[in-house]
Design a protein that fits this description.
This protein has a three-stranded antiparallel beta sheet. The protein is about 70% helix and about 10% strand. The radius of gyration is 23 Å and the shape is elongated. The protein folds into two domains: about 50 residues; about 70 residues, Orthogonal Bundle (Multidrug-efflux Transporter Regulator, Chain: A, Domain 2), CATH 1.10.1660. A hairpin with a 2-residue loop joins strand 2 and strand 3. By secondary structure, it is mostly helical.
């Protein structure tokens, strides 16, 4: 019985090692694809123009639920890429100008639109 346990264990170890090898190959391929994309200047500029949920929540000082409500109500355009939600800086700028009365000066600098005089 001990030999069958050992054979079973060795089989599982081999399956795990094969799976790890497969994952390693996929990661190497993914790393090569990403480095190729980063060399492409249009990809870099697009990447710089997108904000994810966490970035936008911190920038606007709002919760994830509030951000979800803005999306659900159609107030803030968004894109989903590989199961992750992104927002274009231009869309955020338009959203802020349209729906927010007072814009924090930090946001104005970050989103590259003129500061408004607050009275």
């Amino acid at each position: 019985m001990e030999t069958s346990d050992k054979a079973f264990f060795e089989k599982w170890i081999q399956l795990l090692l094969d799976r790890l090898d497969h994952l390693e190959k996929q990661l190497c391929h993914l790393g090569n694809v990403r480095s190729e994309k980063r060399e492409d200047s249009s990809y870099s500029s697009l990447e710089e123009q997108l904000l994810d949920n966490q970035d936008l929540c911190q920038l606007l000082r709002i919760s994830k639920r509030t951000l979800q409500r803005y999306r659900s109500e159609g107030l803030l355009p968004y894109r989903v890429l590989q199961h992750k939600t992104y927002y274009r800086k231009e869309d955020v700028r338009v959203f802020l100008q349209k729906y927010m009365q007072k814009v924090n000066t930090d946001l104005s600098d970050f989103l590259d639109f003129p500061k408004t005089e607050q009275g």
